[in-house]
């Protein structure tokens, strides 16, 4: 009995969401060249274990969805492609991999924005694996910022 009630409720909610949502429009889908300097300091002593002059491409996909009720959902996806370099201090070959995603929902004067970034620099011989992570979140209610979170970490494995 409870399962049947839950299924009916879920079906009604899904039907409601589908009637409110519009199709996502791709605003940008591109692959662009980028360059970035990364300093790897595993023991946080101010003396880098390696310095990297990265180059490669960045795949960017941005979508936007507007509902009949007027809310707007924007998503962004950034992913490095063929990113590599030779460390200026160690001479090691590094590969850059990762993913950055963000979601932004705006409903009148209310908004939630979340960004999650995970970027790894993986040394092929040295064993250095540097991980940069950031989680950033903002919630706005009636035009007032009520939640802000920005957690950044940079560590080696």
Provide an overview of this structure:
It is built from one helix and seven strands; from the N terminus they run αβββββββ. The relative contact order is 0.15. It is elongated, with a radius of gyration of 21 Å. It has one domain. The protein has 157 residues and is mostly beta strands.
Write the layout of secondary structure elements.
Blueprint: H1 2-20, E1 25-40, E2 50-66, E3 72-86, E4 93-107, E5 110-123, E6 129-141, E7 144-156
Antiparallel strand pairs: 1-2, 2-3, 3-4, 4-5, 5-6, 6-7
List keywords for this structure.
12% helix; 1 helix; seven-stranded antiparallel sheet; single chain; disordered N terminus; 157 residues; mainly beta
Distance, first to last CA: 50 Å
Order of helices and strands: HEEEEEEE
The helix-and-strand class reads: mainly beta
Strand content: over 45%
Instruction: Indicate the overall shape.
Output: elongated
Question: Percent range for helical residues?
Answer: 10-25%
Low-pLDDT stretches are 1-19
**Strand order of the main beta sheet, please?**
1-2-3-4-5-6-7
The largest sheet, given as strand count, sense and whether it forms a barrel, is: 7 strands, antiparallel
Number of helices: 1
List the domain count as a whole number. Answer: 1
Strand tally is 7
């Amino acid at each position: 009995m409870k399962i049947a009630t839950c299924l009916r409720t879920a079906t009604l909610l899904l039907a409601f969401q589908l009637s409110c949502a519009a199709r996502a429009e791709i605003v940008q889908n591109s692959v662009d060249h980028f360059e970035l300097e990364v300093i790897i300091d595993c023991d946080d002593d101010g003396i880098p274990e390696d310095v990297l002059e990265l180059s490669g491409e960045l795949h960017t996909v941005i979508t936007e969805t507007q509902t009949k009720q007027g809310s707007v959902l924007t998503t962004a996806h950034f992913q490095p492609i063929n990113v590599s370099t030779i460390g200026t201090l160690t001479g090691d070959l590094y590969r850059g991999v990762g993913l950055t995603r963000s979601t932004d929902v705006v409903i009148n004067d209310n908004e939630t924005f979340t960004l999650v970034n995970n970027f790894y620099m993986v040394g092929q011989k040295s064993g250095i694996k540097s991980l940069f992570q950031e989680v950033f979140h903002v919630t706005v209610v009636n035009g007032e910022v009520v939640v802000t979170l920005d957690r950044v970490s940079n560590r080696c494995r």
